Amino acid sequence: MLIKKQEKTLQDRFGRQHDYLRLSITDRCNLRCVYCMPEEGLPFFPHEKVLSATEIITLVKHFAKMGIKKVRLTGGEPLLRKDILEIAAGIKAIDEIEDLSVTTNGLALPRMAADLKKAGVDRLNISLDTFDAKKYHQMTRGGKLEKVLAGIDAASQQGFKAIKLNTVVINGQNQTELRDFLRYTITQPVNVRFIEFMPIASQKKNWTQGYAGVKEVFTICQTEGWAYEKMTLSGNGPSENYQIKGAKGSFGLIHPVSCQFCESCNRLRVTADGCLKSCLYWADEINLRNKLDDAAAFEAAVVTALNDKPENHQMALDEQEKVKERQPTWRHMSQIGG
Ligand code: SAM
Ligand code: SF4
User: Fold this and answer.
1) Binning pLDDT at 50, 70 and 90, where does residue 258 land?
2) Is-contact 128 106, C-beta < 8 A?
3) Is 104 a pocket residue for ligand 1 (Cβ < 6 Å)?
4) Nearest bound ligand to the CA of residue 211
């Protein structure tokens, strides 16, 4: 009789299974996006505080033994790490890891897209909030639009399984461009994900002004006479996906604020300094770096974090003034990875 191999699972007390690890490999960045970092920047972690390539690969091996199957490298800007190819190839070589992706601002892709593909990266998410060069410069506090567009072009020629664009929708900045992004999906084979601005760390101050829901895209489709239908995309996590009829690409909505999707959360996050966060929003974290040499201690720490994983975050508008159950994180998005 064939005995089915027992699959290891990372289950929390609410029955949620976790197979997805988002790994921030640096807190450094060459941009200062208005929704992610404060204008004055942040003091970066000293190099010795950041996990080395060997430590990152060891960490993923431990997680893979516990049930992680998908890994995303993020940051800060992950392509700033000189050893990114070594990290990607090391993770891809782990048997249990079925999918490796990278989230990037895309600026380094013209020179790195081919090598990332060769190193085993399956999918890319590229952040692009506007098609207007002046606005891009303003929203990223210094970025050049032509560089990221060249990055998207370079990546498109490499045969990645998927390329998605991450577009954070900000009231008074790029909200007026939703139509252009929707039109872009008609001609380009990409998935544009409209993401709600999340109140993380000091972003709370400009968050109230900048927050905009993402459902306006449906009104735009109706006004333009674009019929759309719901669709399923593999490996698409919390995004609700749609396609305009006849379009080459598609669009997705990620609305953690207006409509929580915590009940289906399958992700764990590790920061560049080796701390495990079971929820993006709350401050709770456990240091894993000092447990890398001890598999039992590592597993015990992960189980502790899972057992303490909160049922949901409290980002929603109406909860801003309420007393929260826990302390929200002190980390900015660039120090978590999104
Ligand atoms: N530097 C890379 C990039 O920009 O793609 C990776 C790190 S960045 C923190 C990961 C994702 O988080 C990006 O798509 C970014 O747009 C998004 N992000 C950053 N701050 C955010 C916020 N406050 N609310 C929603 N998304 C945010
Ligand atoms: Fe850097 Fe990405 Fe944050 Fe922009 S969103 S500041 S590119 S980490």
Assistant:
1) confident
2) yes
3) yes
4) 1
